[in-house]
Amino acid sequence: MKADSSTEKPLSSWKEISAYLGCDERTCLRWEKKFKLPVHRAGTKPSKSLVFAYKEELDEWLKRRKPGDPLAENPEGLKPSSLSKRWLFLLAVIPGVVLVVFILMSLTGKSARGGQNEPFDFKIENSLLIITNRNKTELWRYDSGLQSLYGEDSYRQHFGHRHIGNDSDSYLPWLQINDINDDGHTEVLFVAKTQDDSPQSALHCIDSRGRKLWTYEPGRDMTFGTRHFSADYALDCAFVLDMGRPGPQKILVMARHKPNFPSYVAILSSKGETIGEYWNTGRFSDCALVDIDDDGNHALVLVGTNNEYGKGFLAAIDPDFVWGGSPQAADYRCPNLIPGSELFYILFPRTIVDRLEFAPREVISFVDLLKHGRLIAIAFNSRIIFELNARMEIDAVIVSDAFREKFRKFQEAGKIPPGNLNETALSENLAKSVVYYDGERWTTTPSRNKKNLFIYLQKEGRKNR
Questions:
Q1: What one-character-per-residue DSSP string does 192-254 give?
Q2: Residue 218 class from Cβ within 10 Å (0-12 exposed, 13-18 middle, 19+ buried)?
Q3: What is the pLDDT of residue 2?
Q4: Vertex 455: Cα angle to 453 and 460 (nearest 5)
Q5: Do 43 and 28 lie in a common domain?
Q6: How many folded domains does the chain comprise?
Q7: At 156, phi and psi to the nearest 5?
Q8: Is residue 226 part of a domain?
Q9: With 60 as the cut, is the pLDDT of residue 400 above it?
């Protein structure tokens, strides 16, 4: 019987992957680059990237794209004759397609000539955002007034959509060019980020002609427990939520207090109006849109750290129902917030490795999508990888090479007793120690927040329309 990639134990290093394929590690790296060997990556630094692969995916890849045979060079497996027929077909239909596109562009006022006036790319010079068209011709300039603005290279890393960089880290957008209000023209979303991490950062929405439509300034005075926090907040990202729906778009903003723990995400309308906020007593690190119920509707998955419990967390929230705060006890509870609208709120256990690093708390620093609504959550200090299925149940706990190396160094320093690391027992214990908030208490049984069951029913209603 073929193994199920959603339950089998992954190969968790280049050494294991190359041994399984019967080649050396350098060959695996070449196959990944040239032939798209199905290897998954996650991490924060190139030297400590987490690499893992599933045997079933490798087997399928070997069948379809074995390096050295014609199939590898021609992934679709098409013969030259069939390619020629395809080209003849395309040559026959292209004139008609061009005519239809021209008519549609004329009707919407977006002709080829008019497109030259639409924002497409950018430059950063000192405090200036310079917007260009497709031909790199300058259209207009916007002065942020901040001389310590990050440079163009940094903005390039945070331009467009959330993506994974060459260092296997997640980059959330500071700058997006998108048709936000569905008017047929592209607007610019610009987070003015400074190198000194100033709380003066703000989100500016600018139209295609360089006119500022609105500005969003983050933060307000808040109280958690007996502590009062000022309105000094810095923005970490702002981007359009791609929900696959027509009409004006929603915008996600992530902000954090300077220098203390409160942070929040806000959902804005295309006019810059706040239509939802979710607060967490700790930092947010990453986020992603995930179809956790396989129903065509996306949930907003947020990860980071929870200061009260000192653990990494994952929260799943319906983007149409965003309010309140994370589950907290009296010393951290905010009297201005109602209970949060999360469908799931999960805390991940700590390990001996991250505790010995004297980290005050663990952080889930990275979340990434797998197939069929599954995802992985990466712990920053321990480098443990938690794999969850679409029902937010733990399918696997992966011990990475980075964890093994840290464990070995602590043994050599005499901080961990000598002996072999029992990875199976460690993975099983960590999986059993994951806890869920069910709306009233913490439980090791995978559970939704039952107080927000009506939100789930609303999702089901949208699904069945």
A1: --BTT--TT--EEEE-TTS-EEEEE-----EEETTEEE-S-EEEEEEEE---S-SSSPPEEEE
A2: buried
A3: 42
A4: 95
A5: yes
A6: 4
A7: -60, -35
A8: no
A9: yes
Query: For residue 283, what are its two tokens?
Result: 């930092």
Q: Look at 89 and 193; give whichever has higher pLDDT.
A: 193
Burial of 101 (0-12, 13-18, 19+ CB in 10 A): exposed
**Do 380 and 420 lie in a common domain?**
yes
Residue range(s) defining the domain that contains residue 278: 271-464
* Residues 96 and 185 placed together within one structural domain of the fold: no
Per-residue model confidence (pLDDT) at position 22: 83
- Specify whether 416 is located in the same domain as 320: yes
Token pair for 118: 């639409």
Q: Spell 8-41 as b/e; 16+ CB within 10 A means b.
A: ebbbbbbebbbeebeeeeeebbebbeebebbbee
CB 9 within 8 A of CB 63: no
Q: How far is CA 164 from CA 8, 54, 118, 169, 253, in A?
A: 25, 20, 27, 5, 19
Q: Which residues pair with 347 in a beta bridge?
A: 313, 435
* Number of residues that this document lists for the chain: 465
433 contacts 445 by C-beta, under 8 angstroms: no
Give pLDDT tens digits for 189-228.
999 999 988 888 899 999 999 999 999 999 999 999 999 9
Give the count of beta carbons closer than 10 Å to the beta carbon of residue 62: 12
Under a CB-based contact definition with an 8 Å cutoff, are residues 347 and 442 in contact?
A: yes
In three-state secondary structure terms, 81 is: helix
Asked if 353 contacts 403 with a C-beta cutoff of 8 angstroms, the reply is yes
Q: Where is the domain boundary, 147, 182, 217?
A: 217
Q: Is residue 266 part of a domain?
A: no
Are residues 304 and 278 in contact, defined by beta-carbon separation less than 8 angstroms? Answer: no
Asked if residue 264 belongs to a domain, the reply is no
Where do the H-state alpha helices sit in 135-201? 152-157
Q: Output the average pLDDT for the chain.
A: 85
Which of 145-153's residues contact partners 24+ apart within 8 Å by CB, and which partners? 146/192, 146/194, 146/198, 146/200, 146/201, 148/194, 148/195, 148/196, 148/198, 149/124, 149/192, 149/193, 149/194, 149/195, 150/124, 150/174, 150/193, 150/194, 150/195, 151/124, 152/122, 152/123, 152/124, 152/125
What's the pTM value of the predicted model, to 2 decimals?
0.76
- Give Cα separations from 130 to 133, 168, 187 (angstroms): 10, 29, 14
Cβ-proximal residues to 59 (8 Å cutoff; 6+ apart), any chain: none
Residue range 250-274, pLDDT digits in tens: 999 999 999 999 999 999 999 999 9
Q: Is residue 87 part of a domain?
A: yes
Asked whether residue 387 falls in the same domain as residue 443, the answer is: yes
**Which position has the higher pLDDT, 294 or 215?**
215
